[in-house]
Amino acid sequence: MPDPPPTSRGSSRPGRSTSTRRATRPDGAAQEPTAEISATGTGFLVDSPLLGDDMWMAPALAPGWALRAIWKGKWLILAAIVVASAGTYAAVSHLSPQYSASTVVNFNQPQVTATGQEGLAATQKLLDLMPTYAAVATSDQVLSAASTDLSLNQSPSSLRNRVAAGQEGQELAISISVTGSSAPAANSLDQAVETEFARAIDQEQIANGIPSSLKLVLTRLTNPAATEETRHIWQTTLLAGVTMLVLASAIAALAQYIRSQT
After folding, report:
1. Same domain, yes or no, for 204 and 222?
2. pLDDT of 8-55, one tens digit each?
3. Lesser CB count within 10 Å: N end or C end of the chain?
4. Are residues 200 and 111 in the same domain?
5. In the structure, how many helices (H) and strands (E) does the chain have?
6. Per-residue confidence band for 123, with pLDDT thresholds at 50, 70 and 90
7. Going by C-beta distance under 8 Å and a sequence separation of 6 or more, which residues neighbour residue 80?
8. Residues 207, 115: one domain?
9. Is residue 56 a contact partner of residue 42, using CB atoms and an 8 Å limit?
10. What value does the mean pLDDT of the chain take?
11. Inter-residue contact 192 to 149 (CB < 8 Å)
12. How far apart are CA 11 and CA 13, in angstroms?
């Protein structure tokens, strides 16, 4: 859009209507004009002593212009919503089902935790180590051994996308969770990771020379029982439709605004 032709302050402005705003003092006397607004065919010029020069202002849009723009393009917006929702429904519906399984492993140190204050200190220390032990469950050592046990031929980094471990609340326990393409596959992987995790902890204690009486005892509290993960087809479809409604409405309003400035 071309800029309006420059004009000198105080010069006549042929072809433009001019409105002068004057402020009034408390005593009723009019002050000197503080700004001069000149209407042109394509916008407004504001000549203000505070600005020093003319300032170009685009024409204001009428109230409710955005809603009118959206209503004007309602059929295109509706079509976009239908396409986005149908595409999302079809995509999610045809996704291969995923199954998840989990195991809870409890930690115990009987010869220490049974002895009063010393046992309480040892228990707190063991609690603080739970996040570290959880990290061992997803280490390269454990995942590589589990992959070998099941003949998966997958690298630890690839297998790590399907395995997660973390402390079970504030208990001396961690949970190991896995996903698989079938219930048997998820159960087998979960058992293999749990077995190799227990072996890694035992090997670490042997390497550190910990006496058998002070060794951690790991106990499986739950057995893996894989269940199919919920895909939330309708919720995902609704979210896609709402997202497209917002996006298409914003595009319609923006297009109307651009047209009003040209």
Report:
1. yes
2. 444 444 444 444 444 445 555 555 544 454 544 444 444 555 545 554
3. C
4. yes
5. 9, 9
6. confident
7. 244, 247, 248
8. yes
9. no
10. 77
11. yes
12. 6
Q: Retrieve residue 3's tokens.
A: 């800029």
List the beta bridge partners of residue 102. 177
State whether 167 and 183 are in the same domain.
yes
Q: Examine the domain organization and report whether 32 and 135 are in the same domain.
A: no
Give the three-class secondary structure for 166.
strand
Task: Say which residue the tokens 């220490």 belong to.
Answer: 112
**pLDDT single digits (tens) 62-104:** 667 788 888 888 899 999 999 999 998 888 888 777 889 999 9
Can you state the percent helix, strand and coil of the chain, rounding each to 5? Answer: 50, 20, 35
Q: Report the percentage of the chain scoring pLDDT > 90.
A: 25
> What's this model's pTM, rounded to 2 decimal places?
0.55
CB 55 within 8 A of CB 46: yes
Let me know whether 129 and 153 are in one domain.
Answer: yes
What are the backbone dihedrals phi and psi of residue 99, each rounded to the nearest 5 degrees, phi first? -120, 145
SS3 50: coil
Contact 185, 101 (CB under 8 A): no
Determine the structural domain holding residue 119 and report its residue range. Answer: 99-228
Whats the size of the chain, residue-wise? 262
* 43-47, 114-118, 135-139, 251-255: least confidently modelled range: 43-47
The number of beta carbons lying within 10 Å of the beta carbon of residue 148 is 13
Question: 36 - beta bridge partners?
Answer: 20, 47
- Are residues 13 and 107 both part of a single domain? no
Phi, psi torsion values for 254, nearest 5 degrees: -65, -40
**Do residues 206 and 89 share a domain?**
no
Helix (H) or strand (E) holding 63: none
Residue pLDDT, tens place only, 198-220: 999 999 888 888 887 778 888 88
